[in-house]
Write a structure and sequence with these properties.
By secondary structure, the chain is an alpha/beta fold. It contains four helices and eleven strands; from the N terminus they run ααββββββαββββαβ. It holds the Pfam family YkuD.
Length: about 240
């Protein structure tokens, strides 16, 4: 199945240019809209752990990353449902270890670990009308990628025209710190799995078909995902 284009993240390419900060109209969300945890690491496996302890443990995992090219602030985990915190879960699948499985119906991304378990991440996914499913693979990877708005987006949002030649990588760039570019049959689908700094977006459908993880989760997944990794997107 050939995947149609993703308006939110189309045209991305690697970029090392200096950070560019757009106007208030050109923020990450407006563009998007046009170490794994063990089972008990957050107390999710036991009934006696308090919410405050769960939140404190999550804050450690989703803390600031000052050594990045563009230092990443801590994620506001209070705005994320705890069920979307990164953790290791039992997962029965015939897919090989390393495969990425996207479950848009439940807002999860899994990395198969090959021992009956998977690392599970909370995600944002495509909104109604932009959902898709099928098999793809990671055709390339990029850090702090340059983002180029497609012509269709520029037509809808003329203020995006200033980035027609590319928006440099940085904290305000819609692709964030890391991007996995999805391909089918040698062709770029225009869909990505990308890093999001918008904690409130996790567990929602807001994109034009791309899949976003919190920056800390995306960096964790990216480091463990080589080019050619299989990606399975389940029906929503």
């Amino acid at each position: 199945m050939r995947i149609a284009g993703c308006n939110a993240e189309a045209g991305a390419r690697d970029g090392d240019a200096r950070d560019g900060r757009p106007s208030a109209l050109l923020n990450r969300r407006s563009f998007l809209v046009g170490s794994a945890f063990g089972v008990g690491a957050l107390g999710l496996g036991g009934c006696g752990t308090s919410d405050s302890l769960i939140l404190a443990e999550a804050a450690k995992i989703y803390g600031p990353m000052p050594n990045e090219k563009f230092p990443i602030p801590a994620a506001d985990v209070s705005k994320v449902n705890p069920k979307y915190y990164r953790r290791t879960v039992a997962y029965d699948t015939k897919e090989a270890a390393g495969t990425i499985i996207v479950d848009p119906a439940n807002f999860y991304v899994y990395r198969v670990e090959g021992d009956g378990s998977a690392t599970r991440y909370g995600a944002n996914v495509g909104r109604q009308g932009f959902l898709w499913n099928g098999d793809a693979y990671v055709g390339r990877k990029s850090e702090w990628a340059t983002w180029t708005p497609p012509k269709e987006m520029i037509k809808r949002q003329p203020e995006a025209a200033k980035y027609a030649r590319g928006m440099p990588g940085g904290l305000e760039n819609p692709l964030g710190a890391r991007t996995l570019h999805l391909y089918q049959n040698g062709a770029y689908t225009l869909y990505t799995i990308y890093a999001s700094s918008d904690a409130e977006s996790i567990g929602t459908g807001i994109t034009s078909g791309c899949v976003g993880l919190l920056s800390q989760d995306m960096i964790h997944l990216y480091a463990r995902t080589p080019v050619k990794t299989k990606v399975v997107v389940l029906p929503a």
